[in-house]
């Protein structure tokens, strides 16, 4: 037990949000509701269904998918402290830093492969990374993402490139529906896993000479996962990367080249402008073939709004039958970043349509009953139980955005009536108490 | 780096959900969407606005609110491992086990007291407790809750009892709107903090003799927080509790008695049946005056659907000006438990309204373009890029719930047309390709 001094010191403590997190307050919530509503409609139109996975998973799941050597796993996982009670399952757990790993885990655990030839999921929820917080970078942030997973009928199927274009098209459509303008779509291909290997060897060859001029962190990347050098935020590294002649590398197989061409042609069918960026690789281990990124200048240094790509081999890496080739791809959109650039102010909505004023304590009980009847009838209504002058209560009604105010006053109540005031036009009517719900229903409840 | 052997062993690992967590799969999601939609409408009608707080907070916030000696803080907190990097804010963090503490923290941090005389929040999201999982008890579960917080104009205000009745009424209204029937409302009063102290002394007196016949855990409760004995799940303890003559304790002040009577009278005005249960105290430290619990027999041993009460002093304990008396109360509903007893099967909805079949690879490109146009027009549509016989593709269309199927076949395409088949009535029409979107819009997009 704590001593008395400690307790009194604790008494004055003001608790604050944990670093890098945010509250979403009532005045901001309508922007979230609108975005979520639009996301649900657009995803449904594309044939995607929502899935929700837990906030935490086995740490190893993320190491196996995102990559043991990735910054996310090495530096940014927010892990749970191990549980005290010995409950038989003591695998280390971490808050999910992204959505793909959990959804592939769910796909396999619930045997979706036997239920449908292709599974189209979307998700919408909090993700967690122990990053140094900055603009557009929080420790708890929110992503909207889709994942499209199914067995591939054959190993090399050019027609699957339509899905890559569909997924990029869905991402663009979502951003447009959120009111985001002026974003840029960048795409690249990493080819098959074999091509990626050849790409890696080529990079190793051309970067070897410059190795010493790289920062220590980037030198470490050279040996651990050379693709991450292409993602480096260091200026000297970015300049070296810009000099690389990617075409000369010639690491893409015929099939990979055709696949990329087909995906680009399908994107043109969708009238989506894009830029080919040969050094775009994304910081996660699991991608192959098409990767893409959608960025927005207004975001500054953290300018990625959305990113994704194809990750066919991940499904097997997480436990699927190694004999079955898979087609799997998806993306995630950063919701906080969208809200930073979306051209869509919150639509102010009334907190309540009806506000009820009691001019004396003895009218609180009938006011309480009336408010209850209004709410049951589907009309948003509230009442102030702390009383006050008509002026101060009217101010309150205004503040809550009330369109009609019901006043329980001495004179009116003698006739079992109340005054109902239209706050927009100012006129005031005397209404018999047992007809108020009908009267207000006609105003607020749309017919049909 | 891991050795090759370890890697190949890892290859075959199947990842499963962490213990005590669940995925919400696409086939279950419509029940969640419906419940969330209803919750939003009902809460809005009562004048409540949504707030979202982070999944984790400072551990001390929960110790200060829920109670240092509570089971929740002592045994069930899921805490985060301390961060490696020294970032200046090394307060221990835990996943939130309930919603009230975070919302009071947000109320104070964002100065709602200066913005409005009373704040009405609702929240809807995951909560986390490291409990032994069982039916109706998960480590990640979901709660819908409301909190109603504002400064009280005077120290003892009988009219605030209307708010207690409103909050219980809202809880009942929500459960009804979710299709829950046959639930029981139990209420009690703990009185003012002074009364609660007298209640505690009385319990200490009457339980002293029986102390030795209690289980060790309940003996510990006797000294740490005697009210928790009334919550005990142990049979021998429950029998002792049943023998207590609560009325004889006479620990309620005049004001507290009047307050309880007024709240009950307002509940009767709302036509809510309730039972008075003098040993109902709830396992959290922060309650005073009215506490309530709504239970459902069908849930078995974990039968609480919803619970809440008044917690006026908590706001000061978490940092508000000690000179300002507060009125604060709320409740939380367990969503998983509601879904276990709600009389509301999921309404099956079509995954897509239109399914497009290409009978040859060369028709995939026009099919891709048509599907895109349909989606842009707001019609949910999908296409199978892996081809197949007409029979197998029709099966697929059926499985996805398609109401209309568009077929790109050799004969039709000679005339720049497709066949459109109504899956319910079976008739099939030939439609010129550039009129298909119009044709299907007339079927699926409601006018007005």
Distance between the ends of chain A:
63 Å
Q: Uncertain regions of chain A: pLDDT < 50 for 5+ in a row?
A: 1-10
* Side-by-side strand order of the widest sheet of chain A: 1-4-5-10-9-8-6-7
Portion of residues in beta strands of chain A equals: 15-25%
How many strands appear in the DSSP assignment of chain A? 15
Looking at CATH, the homologous superfamily of the largest domain in chain A is: Bira Bifunctional Protein, Domain 2
Taken together, the total number of domains of chain A comes to: 3
Q: What oligomeric assembly is this protein in?
A: homodimer
CATH C-level label of the largest domain in chain A: Alpha Beta
**Biggest interface and which pair forms it?**
A-B, 111 and 112 residues
Tell me the helix content of chain A: 25-40%
Radius of gyration of chain A: 29 Å
Helical run tally of chain A: 19
């Amino acid at each position: 037990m704590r001593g008395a001094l400690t307790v009194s010191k604790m008494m004055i403590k003001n608790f604050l949000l944990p670093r890098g997190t945010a509250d979403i307050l009532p005045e901001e919530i309508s922007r979230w509701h609108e975005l979520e509503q639009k996301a649900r409609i657009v995803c449904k139109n594309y044939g995607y269904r929502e899935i929700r996975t837990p906030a935490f998973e086995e740490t190893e799941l993320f190491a196996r998918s995102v990559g043991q050597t990735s910054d996310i796993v090495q530096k940014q996982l927010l892990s749970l402290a191990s549980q005290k009670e010995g409950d038989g399952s003591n695998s280390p757990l971490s808050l999910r830093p992204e959505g793909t790993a959990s959804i592939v885990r769910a796909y396999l655990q619930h045997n979706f492969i036997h239920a449908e030839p292709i599974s189209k999921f979307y998700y919408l929820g909090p993700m967690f990374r122990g990053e140094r917080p900055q603009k557009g970078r929080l420790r708890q942030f929110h992503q909207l993402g889709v994942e499209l997973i199914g067995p591939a009928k054959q190993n090399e199927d050019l027609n699957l490139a339509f899905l890559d274009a569909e997924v990029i098209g869905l991402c663009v459509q979502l951003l447009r529906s959120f009111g985001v303008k002026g974003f840029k779509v960048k795409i690249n291909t990493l080819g098959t896993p074999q091509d990626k290997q050849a790409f890696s060897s080529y990079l190793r060859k051309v970067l070897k000479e410059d190795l010493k001029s790289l920062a220590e962190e980037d030198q470490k990347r050279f040996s651990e996962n050379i693709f991450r050098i292409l993602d480096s935020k260091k200026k000297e590294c970015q300049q070296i990367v810009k000099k690389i002649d990617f075409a000369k590398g010639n690491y893409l197989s015929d099939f990979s080249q055709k696949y990329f061409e087909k995906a680009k042609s399908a994107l043109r069918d969708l009238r989506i402008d894009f830029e080919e960026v040969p050094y775009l690789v994304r910081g996660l281990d699991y991608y192959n073939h098409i990767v893409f990124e959608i960025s927005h200048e207004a975001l500054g240094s953290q300018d990625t709004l959305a990113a994704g790509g194809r990750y066919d081999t991940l499904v097997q890496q997480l436990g699927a039958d190694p004999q079955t080739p898979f087609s799997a791809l998806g993306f995630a959109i950063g919701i906080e970043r969208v809200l930073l650039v979306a051209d869509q102010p919150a639509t102010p909505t009334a907190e309540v349509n009806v506000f009820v004023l009691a001019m004396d304590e003895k009218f609180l009980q009938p006011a309480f009953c009336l408010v209850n009847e209004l709410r049951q009838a589907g009309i948003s209504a509230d009442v102030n139980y702390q009383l006050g002058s008509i002026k101060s209560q009217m101010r309150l009604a205004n503040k809550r955005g009330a369109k009609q105010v019901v006043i329980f006053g001495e004179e009116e109540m003698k006739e079992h009536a109340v005054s109902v005031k239209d706050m927009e036009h100012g006129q005031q009517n005397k209404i018999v108490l047992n007809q108020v719900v009908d009267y207000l229903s006609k105003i607020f409840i749309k017919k049909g």
